[in-house]
Specification:
The complex is a heterodimer of chains A (about 350) and B (about 300). With about 350 residues, chain A is mainly α. Chain A has helices spanning about 1-20, 20-40, 70-75, 85-95, 120-130, 135-140, 155-185, 185-190, 195-225, 235-255, 265-280, 290-300, 300-315, 325-345; strands spanning about 50-55, 80, 100-105, 110. Chain A is about 65% helix and about 5% strand. In chain A, strands 2-1-3-4 form a four-stranded mixed beta sheet. In chain A, helix 7 runs antiparallel to helix 13 and helix 10 runs parallel beside helix 14. Chain A is elongated, with a radius of gyration of 26 Å. By secondary structure, chain B is of the alpha/beta class. Chain B has two domains: about 30-45 and about 70-205 and about 210-215, Rossmann fold (3-Layer(aba) Sandwich), CATH 3.40.50.300; about 220-305, no CATH class. Chain B has helices at about 45-50, 70-75, 90-100, 110-115, 130-140, 160-175, 185-195, 210-220, 235-240, 255-265, 280-290; strands spanning about 5-15, 15-30, 30-35, 60-65, 65, 75-80, 150, 180-185, 195-200, 205-210, 220-225, 240-245, 250-255, 275, 305. Chain B has a six-stranded mixed beta sheet, sandwiched between helices. In chain B, strand 4 and strand 5 form a beta hairpin. Chain B starts with a strand and ends with a strand. The chains are: A mainly alpha (about 350), B alpha/beta (about 300). At the A-B interface, helix 1 and helix 8 of A face helix 3 of B.
């Protein structure tokens, strides 16, 4: 029995590592994402709001040449974009390429914002505030610094990107491959050998675990050379959580591929699962403040629990005991997905 | 001789279509049994039920006198019509991988030598010719040294040379004493390889015997084909004559020499005449009124000899 499992495990690994294009993409994709975000967020002051100014001759005007209140011009996170006339600026504002449009010159300053753009509303408030006297604001507020450790955005984002990559790798690497093999008759050929469904499925699962952990290690080491991640917990804990997460996600892939011979259909199903999971599992943004039902749906996805645990270990130095609930949930997910997937599995239908 | 495989009243129904309609047959060990019939006759459904791929709706299948056990798949070799193989493996690795799934696997080099694959051993399994691929599938079916071998239309899609090569390999396997169940819609293949043939039509077996006996049961002697205007009325009275649509007519005769002598005496121009022996295609046409495979190019005309 182990012999048959092992030979299928080796065959699947060979397929993955010899498929140069697929293998390269699996490793390269997270690198590109992390590097891209490194460039975007690596700059000291990312521009979050774009302010159109007219009449200005060049598209990237020097701030000290603009005839606008100095306090507005020196507010952080604002990027000024020049336009020759109102029409050119209005066109960009209408298409949300800029958040706010103002005429430089002497007060009163005419400005335009889109009512449907929340960023425009905030810029309007900032603009109006910058017209208020300094002394009034200084008396009314006291600024305090955040106490304790400051978590860099990249340290928060990186586990999300790794997790997302793992999810796609598990769903497509297991689900899509199994359905393709069913469609092309490979599974039918294996069906008439002494190989059992359990041996075949466990070989697929373990092979994918091996490949995912391998990819995570390569990407982690590679990205760490560039970004120097701050890991406050133990690497052993991280490894255990990644293993449990890989297991749950691969088992989900097997479940989704348990029946069917249509690659188009399974692709649709995989997307139907993967996209909500990506958006609701806090890969890119926190669900803090989202409606309760959205958070409840998010808890149905293994990726949510995986990322929560990885971020707590990495960012807060949590131990395996601290993330015990997430670990148990991931293993439960894996157990349920595997059991149902094995019951539903068909070699040729 | 005992039957290695026995099928009794086998039935498979797909909706209103009865794909296999209560067929029964037994195959003796060491023989090559052919299921001959056109596409859609129920050949593949029949052997896939025996192979445990499809669940029958009725009937009984006995292997070595007993219902098929879990060890059945260890002892049979199976070649499907069209399946792909595990990707990114060489021919040698593919055979090695499949061999390790069995307890009693053949040596990979031996299997490659038997199926003439040694020279492509290190090529990827999807990067070989159609004939080589068919022989690889055959080698995979043989890798567990099976007692019973199923070949489902093994030469479909091959060019004549590749087909001859494959037949040679199958002949060698026959010499080793293995039992073979073969489906085909090429009468030439069935005639060349099979000891016994069951002709299937619309889910039923309509005739079953050795190829020679099947032909001799329905046809006597040879068929002479000549232009319509070449025949005298005297000759028409003496022979069974069939008019064909292409301006020719066929004469059936037990004595070719006498028939040709008469034709020459009658002053018939022999340049456009042909004679041939009846074959399984003729048997099939006789029994069903249809050809085995309209596009196979293996019809009676292929068997003609110019005189």
């Amino acid at each position: 029995m182990f012999e048959r499992f092992w030979v299928m495990f080796i065959a699947r690994n060979r397929e993955f590592f010899r498929d140069r294009a697929g293998f390269g993409w699996n490793i390269l994709f997270p690198f590109l994402l992390v590097a891209g975000f490194g460039v975007i967020f690596g700059a000291k002051e990312p521009s979050l709001y774009k302010i159109g100014v007219y009449p200005v001759s060049g598209p990237a005007p020097a701030i000290h040449h603009l005839d606008l209140p100095a306090r507005f011009l020196h507010t952080r996170y604002l990027k000024f974009v020049g336009f020759q006339n109102l029409e050119a600026g209005m066109d960009k504002l209408r298409h949300h390429r800029i958040d706010f449009l103002v005429r430089a010159g002497q007060p009163p300053y005419p400005f335009w914002v889109s009512d449907t753009n929340p960023k425009g509303y905030l810029v309007e408030r900032i603009f109006k505030a910058s017209l208020v006297n300094d002394r009034d604001t200084a008396d009314a507020v006291i600024k305090k610094q955040i106490q304790g450790r400051n978590i860099r955005y990249i340290d928060w984002l990186f586990p999300g990107i790794l997790g997302m990559n793992m999810m796609f790798s598990a769903l497509w690497g297991v689900g899509y491959v199994v359905v393709r093999y069913r469609k092309t008759g490979v599974l039918k050929r294996l069906m008439v050998t002494p190989l059992t469904a359990f041996e075949y499925l466990s070989a697929q699962l373990v092979s994918r675990l091996f490949i995912m952990i391998f990819s995570v290690c390569v990407v982690w080491i590679g990205c760490n050379l560039i970004f120097r991640f701050q890991v406050h917990g133990s690497y052993v804990s991280l490894f255990v959580i990644f293993l449990a997460g890989s297991l749950a996600l691969s088992a989900l892939g097997l479940l989704l591929a348990s029946r069917g011979t249509s690659e188009e259909f399974v692709s649709g199903v995989l997307n139907f699962i993967a996209w909500p999971m990506m958006f609701l599992s806090e890969v890119w943004f926190s669900l803090e403040g989202a409606p309760a039902w959205v958070k409840a749906v998010a808890r149905l996805f293994p990726l949510t629990h995986l990322l929560k645990a990885v971020r707590r270990i990495m960012n807060d130095g949590a131990t395996l005991i601290d993330v015990g609930p997430e670990l148990i949930i991931l293993l439960l997910f894996a157990g349920v997905f595997l059991t149902v997937g094995a019951i539903l599995f068909s070699w040729n239908r | 001789m005992t039957a290695i495989l026995e099928v009794k009243h086998l039935v498979k129904q797909y909706g209103k279509n009865r794909a296999v309609d209560g067929i029964s047959f037994a195959i003796e060990a060491g023989t090559c049994f052919g299921l001959l019939g056109p596409n859609g006759a129920g050949k593949t459904t029949t052997i896939e039920m025996i192979e445990k791929v499809i669940v029958p709706d009725g009937g009984e299948i006995l292997y070595k006198g007993r219902p098929r056990s879990s060890g059945f798949l260890e002892e049979v070799g199976i070649q499907f019509q069209e399946t792909e193989l595990l990707a990114f493996l060489t021919v040698r690795e593919t055979l090695h991988t499949f061999g390790r799934l069995y307890q009693n696997a053949m040596d990979v080099d031996e299997a490659m030598a038997l199926c003439d694959l040694t020279e492509v051993a290190s090529q990827q399994n999807d990067n070989i010719s159609g004939g080589q691929r068919q022989r690889l599938w055959l080698a995979l079916a043989l890798i567990n040294q099976p007692d019973l071998l199923f070949l489902d239309e093994p030469s479909t899609g091959l060019d004549p040379n590749a087909r001859l090569d494959l037949w040679q390999v199958i002949d060698t396997i026959k010499q080793q004493g293995r039992t073979i169940v073969l489906t085909t819609h090429y009468m030439e293949e069935a005639e060349k390889l099979c000891d016994e043939i069951a002709i299937m039509h619309k889910g039923r077996i309509i005739a079953r015997d050795t190829p020679k006996k099947l032909i001799s049961t329905y046809f006597n002697g040879i068929t002479v084909t000549l232009p319509v205007d070449g025949l005298t009325k005297d000759m028409e009275k003496q022979y069974t004559v069939r008019r064909k649509t292409d301006g020719h007519m066929e004469i059936e005769t037990n004595d070719a020499n006498a028939c040709l002598a008469r034709l020459m005496d009658s002053g018939v121009d022999l340049t456009d005449i042909s004679i041939r022996t009846p074959n399984l295609e003729d048997v099939f046409i006789h029994l069903t009124g249809k050809r085995l495979s309209p596009n196979s190019g293996q019809g009676p005309d292929q068997n003609k000899k110019k005189v």
